[in-house]
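During the no-cost extension, the postdoctoral fellow (Dr. R.K.) reprocessed legacy sequence entries with the updated structure-token encoder. One reprocessed record is reproduced below for audit purposes.
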Amino acid sequence: MKIDFYSNLKRLRSKSLIPAYTWLIVIFVVSSIPHLRVSFNRILSMDKIAHFSEYFIFGLMFKHGLYKNDESRMRNIIMVMVVTALFATLDEIHQLIVPGRTASAYDFIADFLGGGVFSQIYEIGVRNKKWL
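Re-encoded structure tokens follow.
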């Protein structure tokens, strides 16, 4: 499978992705709230559930927007995984400069699992009509 960098960038500028990008802005705004603490358990907590959920929603919205432009399942899966990993990384780096916030590998894992992995599993199940 050949991946054309410029055609992929063109797909990322599609109007059908506006809801997903709006959701990323919401994630960024919430990440900018200083001293936001949900719980102190580092691995499984409401904080990780929140990270997982917000990126799960992003993954579904992003994948839906991509399918409006390109029906290639494999290209869309890769694109969602890459963009989720990229934005989750940038989000954690951003939290290093927000007062009272810290970057966490566990948060990144929750983000990536929600948006990059489980949104794909869910979408595949729905497309195959196994989980309706």
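The chain has a mean pLDDT of 82. The longest helix spans residues 73-95. The remaining legacy entries will be reprocessed before the final report is submitted.
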